[in-house]
Amino acid sequence: MSEGHKDWATRFRPDGPLYSMLRSPLRLHLLDLLIKSPKERLDAARLSYKSGILLKDVLAAISPLVEQGILDEQREAKGTRYRLNTDQDDALRDALRGFLHEHRHLISRYLFVREEVFGGLIGADERMKVIHQLIHLSARLGTAMLIGGDAGTGKRQAARAVHTLSGHEIKTMLEMDAIEAVTMDLQDPGLHRYSTVLLCHLEAVTNPADQERLTKKLRGVSADGPRLIATTRTDLYPSAYKEPTRAALYGVFNVFPLRLPGLCERPTDLPLLLADVLQQECQSLYNDPFAKSLHDEARSVLVCYSWPGNIAQLRRVLHHAAAQSPESLIDAKGVRALLREESQPGPVDQQDPLFFTLDELEADHLRRLLPSLSYNISLAARRLGITRATLYSKLRRYGIALPSSAKGRNRA
Question: Around 53, how many Cα atoms within 13 Å sit in the side-chain half-sphere?
Fold first, then answer.
């Protein structure tokens, strides 16, 4: 072993001076990208794009690597470029490869948490940083949780993040509409197969008797039973409700309230989200996160859009843009056409169902199924394989009204 190799290997050891600094998951990820292209010089903006990490965070991570001689810095007219100092130092290359191999689990975990767990919840906005901290804190505490926010803000994603970060990947999370839980036995031993129960659309439980019934059921869940999380589009705090039954129901989950902001509340996050989500959609479509990129004009159009459907709408538009663009560079014309379609929604069968949420597909199916069965609720429920009560809850949830002629017929 050469003296240089011994020196780098010593510095990378757990008792060495560089060990703690190098074990940063963000730095490990950047070094892993750089070692795969050892002769290529990359500027910080390119590293930011390839890694999906904010430019300022890339620069902060790079600085000590340059100081310690691990990265070579070359200043040019167009900016500063970086590459690993492994060309002239085989010892560094070998030691670094060994270190990355030893810490591969940290890199994998970092990417899993960033891409799979947080998904569209990433952002540099101060509110998103607080939300990340609260999600990690809630995951450790294991308390009941209420997640609020407008449609498409990522409430389910946040709930899954809490579940996963709690270390419960082995056990699954049970998701259901809150209205379905009214008639469900929440003390069923079978529920112990799940570590988390997620009740979606708590606001859909509007009947006071149902609210009281569900509150009693939830309070009866044992301490060693599944963790309870609920989502709502309405106010998070029980004090906001005059009805005591609704206030009591929300109070069950209000141990840990969390509100997700809409995209219009964090516009500075849009450039980062556009790059990150487009990479995810390209990976899904082409198994290559960099298969498509946005033209500057297209990016400007998307940044200026209001995104009323929040991250869910942004993901749908970028998926469609990546799938439809014949070129690797997505132009502004195609993006504008997609946004026009978004502002003029039509029946699902006139558009590609791949770009709709399950809720949108289900609502559209109900709107077409019921007239075909003369609005016979019993027959429709049997056709769908659900109870009449569940079907009625879905109709209320999607705002689907029955014609007056059908109401009397369905009372029986």
Answer: 21
In one letter, which amino acid is 278? L
Q: Are 230 and 198 in contact (CB under 8 A)?
A: yes
Q: Is 280 exposed, middle or buried (0-12, 13-18, 19+ CB in 10 A)?
A: buried
**Residue 324 φ/ψ, nearest 5 degrees:** -90, -30
User: d(Cα 49, Cα 36) in Å, to the nearest integer?
Assistant: 16
For the chain, the distance separating the N- and C-terminal CA atoms, rounded to the nearest angstrom, is: 87
Cβ distance 130 to 138 under 8 Å? no
For residue 162, give both structure tokens: 């809490």
Spatial CB neighbours of 382, under 8 Å, sequence gap ≥ 6: none
Residue 305 · residue 339 · CB < 8 Å: yes
Closest CA to 120 of 92, 161, 74: 161
DSSP element (H, E) containing 224: none
Instruction: For residue range 110-158, list pLDDT tens digits in order.
Output: 776 666 667 667 776 778 878 888 888 888 888 889 999 998 898 988 9
Contact, 210 vs 393, CB < 8 A?
no
pLDDT at 235 over 80: no
Radius of gyration of the chain (CA): 26
Q: Which residues make beta-bridge pairs with 194?
A: 172
- Residue 164: phi and psi, rounded to 5, are -70, -45
Please say whether the beta carbons of 62 and 55 come within 8 A: no
Looking at every residue in the chain, the average pLDDT score rounds to 82
Assessment of whether the complete model's pTM goes beyond 0.70: no
For the segment 238-248, the average pLDDT, to the nearest whole number, is 78
Helix boundaries (H) for 13-125: 19-22, 25-35, 44-51, 55-67, 90-102, 104-111
